[in-house]
C-alpha cells in the first residue's frame, strides 16, 4: 500500500509534466533539471527583490543590529544588496556576543585571555574593548557582562555603521555606493565591451560577404576549368550537373563553403560526385582559427563503379603518414590490406608516398608506367604532386555504395587551377583501368577467402547485435508496461480491483447455486 | 571494329546516366552546431546574470551559426532562440527598465526552450 500511495503522490507531477512536455523515458530527469534552473532563477529574483526593498529600510534594520536573533538574517540581507557594504567582519563580530556565552566571560576585562579562545580576526575588536558605548545595549539582559559585551557591540557598530553616528565615515559609505552604480563615469573605457563586440560584429558581416564571394569564385574557377564545354569531364561524362537537363546548374551549393558537382553517363561507372570543401572564408571566427591551425581547400571525388565493373580490389596511396593513419582508420583497409613495401627492380612511387594494398599484385598492376610518368614518379610528383592528398579504391566501402574510387586532392588558387589538371586526369584513367582490370586466378582465390572470412565475422557480429537488440527491446517493453502501470492512478487501480473482485464473486456465485441445486 | 574504336575514344555512355539524387542524411549524422550551442549558453548566462559581455558573445556566436547554416528550417529555430536570448540580455542591460517583466519573460523562455529540448530528446529516443 505504501508503494501505491507513493505512486499516487507521483502521478499529478507526471501529469503536469506530460501536459507540458512530450512523454519520454528521461523526461522526469529533464524536468528536474529544468526545475532546478527555475528555482535558481527564482532565488535570484527574490534576492534582487529583497535588494530593492532592502535599500530604503537599511537604517531601520540596522537599528536592530544588536539583537542576536537577527544577526544572521541581517548579515544575509546586508551582504546581498550592497556588495561593497561593510566588510564581512560583521559576520565575525556579531558572533562575539554568542561566543561570549560559550567562553568564560571574564568580568575583569582580562584582555589577554580572551584572544586565545577566539579566532585570529577578533583581536582587533578585542583591543577596542575599553571604549564602551551603551546607548543601544539592553543592560538588563546582560548584567553579568559589563565590559566584554559592550566592547564587541562597539566593534560591530563600527563595522556595520549603526545609526549611532559614532563613525561618520561609515554613514556615508552606503549612500555613495548606489550613486556609483546609477551614474557610472562615462568614459570610453566603460564602453570597451560594446566597442570591441560591435566592431567585431561589423567586421564579421563584411567578411561574410567577401568570404562568400571568394569561395564562390574558387568553385566557379574550378568548374570553368574542368567542367565547361570540351573540358575533361565534358569529354568523359554525358551528364554534368545535378539537374536533369543540360542547362541545369553544374554546381550544387551546400552551405557557404561546400560545393558539389555531379557527373554521370560513362562506361564502368554509375556516376561521380565531386565535393569541394573550401575553407570557411565567410566565417571570421574560423578564419582566425585557421590562422593558428592552417587548413587547405580540399576536393573529394567519389566514383561509384558499376557492380560488375570492378574486381576485388583494395588499394590506397597517400603520403606515408597519412597512409598509416588511413590504414588504421578505414575499415576496409584495416581488414583486407597492408602496407606494401616498394619492390626492387622496378620503377616505383616517389619516396614520400606509401601504398596500402590487399596484395602486391594489385599494387603492381595499378601503379602503371603511365601513372608514374604522369604524376607519381619521383620527378613528376615533385612538380605536380603537391596537391595530391590520397586515393583509395575499394570494393568494400562502407555505406550505400560498396564499389567506389575515392580521390582526394587539395585545391589550388582560383588563378592556378591548371595545376591540378594532371591529377584530375587520373580519374578517368583509373576508372578505365579498374573497369578493365581482372585479378589473376591465384590472387582471386585469396581475396575471395579473405572476403568470406570477413563476411562470416560480420554475420556473427550482426547476429550478436541482433540478439542484443532483441533483449533490449524486451527489457524496454517490460519497463514500459511497468511505467504504464505506475501511471495509472490509485483510483483506477481501485476500480480495477473492485472489478476483479466482482468478477471473482460472479465466478464463485454459480458454483454455489450449482451446489445448492444438486 | 569502327564502332569499337569509337567507343574507346569516347567513353561517354548516355544510356547509363543517372540523375543526381541527394543522399538522405539523418538528423543525427549532421555535424554538431557548436557555435549555436555556445551562443545559447552565453545567451542564457547573459540574460540571467546580466553580463553584457555574455550577451554580446551570444550575438556574435549566433551570427557565426547563422553564417554556417546549412539547412534553414532545421537550424533556424535554435539560432533564433540564441539570438533572442542575446538580444534580450542586451535590452535588460542597457535599458534596465522593467526588469521584473524581463524576468518573467526569461522564465517563460526557459520553460519553452526546456520543452523544446525535451521534445528533441524524446524525438531522438523514439527514433
Structure notes:
Chain B: Its main location: membrane. Chain B: It is found in: Membrane. Chain B: It comes from Oldenlandia corymbosa var. corymbosa. Chain A is built from 21 helices and 10 strands. In chain A, strands 1, 2, 3, 4, 5, 6, 7, 8, 9 and 10 form a 10-stranded antiparallel β-sheet that branches. Helices cover about 55% and strands about 10% of the residues of chain A. Among the domains of chain A are: about 60-180, no CATH class; about 215-440, no CATH class. Chain A is α+β, with helices and mostly antiparallel strands and about 525 residues long. Chain A has helices at about 1-20, 25-55, 60-65, 70-80, 90, 95-100, 115, 125, 150-160, 170-180, 190-225, 230-235, 285-290, 320-330, 330-335, 360-365, 370-375, 380-385, 420-435, 440-485, 490-515, and strands at about 240, 250-255, 260-265, 270-275, 300-305, 315-320, 340, 355, 390-395, 405-410. Chain A is extended, with a radius of gyration of 41 Å. Helix content of chain B is about 70%, strand content about 0%. The longest helix of chain B is centred in the last third of the chain and has 28 residues, at about 100-125. The model of chain B is unreliable at about 1-5 (pLDDT under 50). Chain B has helices spanning about 1-10, 35-50, 50-65, 70-95, 100-125. Chain B has one domain (about 30-125). Chain B has about 130 residues and is mainly alpha-helical. Classes of the chains: A alpha+beta (about 525), B mainly alpha (about 130). The interface between A and B is large, with 57 and 45 residues.
Amino acid at each position: 500500500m505504501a508503494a501505491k500511495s507513493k505512486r499516487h503522490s507521483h502521478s499529478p507531477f507526471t501529469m503536469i509534466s506530460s501536459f507540458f512536455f512530450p512523454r519520454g523515458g528521461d523526461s522526469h530527469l529533464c524536468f528536474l533539471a529544468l526545475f532546478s534552473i527555475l528555482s535558481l532563477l527564482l532565488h535570484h529574483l527574490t534576492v534582487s527583490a529583497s535588494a530593492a526593498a532592502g535599500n530604503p529600510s537599511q537604517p531601520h534594520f540596522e537599528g536592530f543590529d544588536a539583537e542576536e536573533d537577527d544577526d544572521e538574517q541581517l548579515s544575509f540581507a546586508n551582504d546581498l544588496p550592497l556588495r561593497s557594504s561593510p566588510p564581512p567582519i560583521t559576520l565575525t563580530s556579531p558572533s562575539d556576543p554568542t561566543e561570549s556565552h560559550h567562553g568564560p566571560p571574564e568580568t575583569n576585562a582580562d584582555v589577554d585571555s580572551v584572544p586565545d579562545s577566539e579566532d585570529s580576526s577578533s583581536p582587533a575588536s578585542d583591543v577596542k574593548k575599553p571604549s564602551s558605548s551603551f546607548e543601544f545595549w539592553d543592560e538588563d539582559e546582560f548584567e553579568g557582562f559589563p565590559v566584554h559585551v559592550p566592547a564587541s557591540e562597539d566593534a560591530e557598530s563600527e563595522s556595520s555603521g549603526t545609526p549611532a553616528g559614532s563613525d561618520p565615515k561609515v554613514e556615508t559609505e552606503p549612500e555613495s555606493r548606489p550613486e556609483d552604480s546609477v551614474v557610472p563615469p562615462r568614459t570610453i573605457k566603460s564602453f570597451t565591451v560594446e566597442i570591441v563586440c560591435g566592431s567585431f560584429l561589423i567586421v564579421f558581416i563584411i567578411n561574410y560577404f567577401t568570404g562568400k564571394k571568394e569561395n564562390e569564385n574558387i568553385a566557379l574557377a574550378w568548374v570553368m576549368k574542368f567542367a565547361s564545354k570540351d573540358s575533361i569531364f565534358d569529354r568523359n561524362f554525358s551528364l554534368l550537373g545535378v539537374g536533369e537537363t543540360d542547362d541545369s546548374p553544374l554546381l550544387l551549393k551546400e552551405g557557404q563553403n561546400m560545393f558539389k558537382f555531379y557527373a554521370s553517363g560513362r562506361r564502368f561507372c554509375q556516376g561521380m560526385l565531386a565535393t569541394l570543401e573550401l575553407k570557411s572564408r565567410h566565417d571570421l571566427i574560423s578564419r582566425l582559427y585557421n590562422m593558428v591551425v592552417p587548413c587547405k581547400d580540399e576536393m573529394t571525388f567519389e566514383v561509384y563503379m558499376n557492380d560488375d565493373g570492378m574486381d576485388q580490389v583494395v588499394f590506397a596511396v597517400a603520403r606515408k603518414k597519412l597512409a598509416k593513419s588511413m590504414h588504421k582508420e578505414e575499415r576496409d583497409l584495416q581488414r583486407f590490406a597492408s602496407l606494401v613495401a616498394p619492390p626492387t627492380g622496378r620503377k616505383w612511387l616517389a619516396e614520400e608516398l606509401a601504398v596500402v594494398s590487399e596484395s602486391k599484385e594489385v599494387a603492381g598492376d595499378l601503379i602503371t608506367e603511365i601513372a608514374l610518368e604522369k604524376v607519381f614518379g619521383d620527378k613528376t610528383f615533385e612538380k605536380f604532386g603537391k596537391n595530391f592528398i590520397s586515393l583509395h579504391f575499394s570494393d568494400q566501402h562502407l555505406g550505400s555504395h560498396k564499389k567506389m574510387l575515392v580521390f582526394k586532392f587539395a585545391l589550388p588558387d582560383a588563378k592556378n587551377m591548371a595545376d591540378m589538371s594532371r591529377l584530375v586526369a587520373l580519374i578517368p584513367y583509373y576508372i578505365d583501368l579498374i573497369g578493365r582490370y581482372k585479378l589473376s586466378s591465384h590472387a582471386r582465390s585469396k581475396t575471395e577467402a579473405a572476403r568470406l572470412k570477413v563476411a562470416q565475422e560480420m554475420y556473427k557480429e550482426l547476429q550478436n547485435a541482433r540478439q542484443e537488440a532483441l533483449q533490449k527491446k524486451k527489457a524496454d517493453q517490460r519497463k514500459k508496461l511497468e511505467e504504464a502501470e505506475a501511471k495509472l492512478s490509485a483510483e483506477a487501480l481501485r476500480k480495477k480491483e473492485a472489478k476483479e473482485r466482482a468478477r471473482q464473486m460472479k465466478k464463485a456465485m454459480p458454483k454455489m447455486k450449482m451446489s445448492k441445486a444438486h | 571494329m569502327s564502332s569499337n574504336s569509337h567507343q574507346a575514344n569516347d567513353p561517354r555512355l548516355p544510356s547509363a546516366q543517372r540523375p543526381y539524387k541527394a543522399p538522405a542524411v539523418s538528423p543525427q549524422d549532421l555535424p554538431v552546431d557548436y557555435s549555436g550551442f555556445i551562443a545559447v549558453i552565453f545567451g542564457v548566462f547573459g540574460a540571467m546574470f546580466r553580463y553584457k559581455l555574455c550577451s554580446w558573445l551570444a550575438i556574435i556566436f549566433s551570427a557565426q551559426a547563422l553564417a554556417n547554416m546549412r539547412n534553414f528550417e532545421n537550424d533556424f529555430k535554435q539560432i533564433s532562440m540564441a539570438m533572442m536570448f542575446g538580444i534580450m540580455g542586451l535590452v535588460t542591460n542597457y535599458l534596465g527598465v522593467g526588469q521584473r517583466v524581463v524576468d518573467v519573460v526569461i522564465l517563460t523562455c526557459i520553460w519553452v526552450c526546456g520543452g523544446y529540448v525535451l521534445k528533441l530528446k524524446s524525438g531522438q529516443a523514439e527514433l
